[in-house]
Amino acid sequence: MTDGAVGRAELDAARLLLARMGISPADLVEAAAVRPVAPTFAEYVPVVSAAVTAGTRRAYGSYWKRVVEHWGSRRLDEPSPSEIEWLAEYVKTHVVARRNARGGRSAAEHLIAALRCLYKRAVADGFIAAADNPAVKVAKPRRLASTRRAVADARLAEINAVAAGTGDDPVLDSLLLRLHTETACRRGGALALRPVDLDPDQCLILLREKGDTVRWQPVSPTLMRHLQRHAEERHAPARGQLLRYRNGQPITYRRYDHLWVRIGEHLPWVYVQQISTHWLRHTTLTWVERNFGYAVARAYAGHADSGGDVGTTTTYVRASLQEVAAALAALTNEPHPLA
């Protein structure tokens, strides 16, 4: 059978199916024509921004702003995949240069992710068809391996010493480091912690982190006492944010930024390697995995047993430079400063 004959047979089958369903080709054309006119990016971005979670808004907000700057007056159904690739390349080459920059790859990846989020909403709202979504037709840049790793015990002690001996609120900073080191929680989880989330009888705290995940995490009696004392002394409402400044105002992500800048001023290696709070998560999970196994480390991290979290824990428990150096020392029979 020729290609033409195959095509006619498929059309005949489609017509027969539509006839049995009581639908005419004209009905399909009319249904397609009633799709509402797509809004402009300037009109739609605020709608999506108001509908998403605070975490999503924080992650994509600056990229949606870029989109509005370039395409604010254009309708959602106008940009092509090629234009999205152009905008991603533009963002990549015009990213603010930082010490830990990696050629703008992350900026390009986040721009595409931000547009995918935007267009997913547009499809759900009926402004464009799923098949016409241009953002899903653009591949994200391949993500490079993270440079984060576990911090050695001696280095971690240096970090804690600087936090406890400098700054305008060493009690708060020491509590932050203790909380993240013990629980391996993310910054969002710490900032979302409330006094009502403390269970002192069982030494558990309730962590609410990204992806709307909620989990009970064990903590030491010492950390529990400090958290309770902090909430009491800084007058944290039972259902309000627990971590606060001396004046009672809730802390924000800026406290973490200032903390690591200050530590980097006292410890040059912290500045050079761009150590951050997330390195503490790597540190704790690596120690747990080495001593109690992968399954416990996975639960400690709060990673789900299914879905996108499968295998994610391996990101945090990679071999450290110290372990590699120890292997080298054993291989060469020569001491190494990191081993």
Provide structural commentary.
56% of the residues lie in helices and 4% in strands. It is elongated and about 75 Å long. The protein is mostly helical.
Write the layout of secondary structure elements.
Elements: H1 3-20, H2 25-33, H3 41-51, H4 54-71, H5 81-93, H6 105-124, H7 153-165, H8 170-183, H9 187-191, E1 198-199, E2 204-209, E3 213-218, H10 221-233, H11 253-266, H12 268-273, H13 277-292, H14 294-301, H15 321-332
Antiparallel strand pairs: 1-2, 2-3
Features:
about 350 residues, mainly alpha, 3-stranded antiparallel sheet, 15 helices, about 55% helix, about 5% strand
Can you give me a brief rundown of this structure?
Helices cover 56% and strands 4% of the residues. With 339 residues, the protein is mostly helical. The protein is elongated.
Unreliable stretches: none
Proportion of strand residues: under 5%
Strands ordered across the widest β-sheet: 1-2-3
- C-alpha Rg, in Å? 26 Å
The SSE string, one letter per element, is HHHHHHHHHEEEHHHHHH
Number of helices: 15
Mean pLDDT: 85
What percent of the residues sit in helical stretches (DSSP H or I)? Answer: 55-70%
Instruction: Give me the oligomer status.
Output: single chain
Alpha-beta content class: mainly alpha
Gross morphology? elongated
Distance between the termini: 72 Å
Number of strands: 3
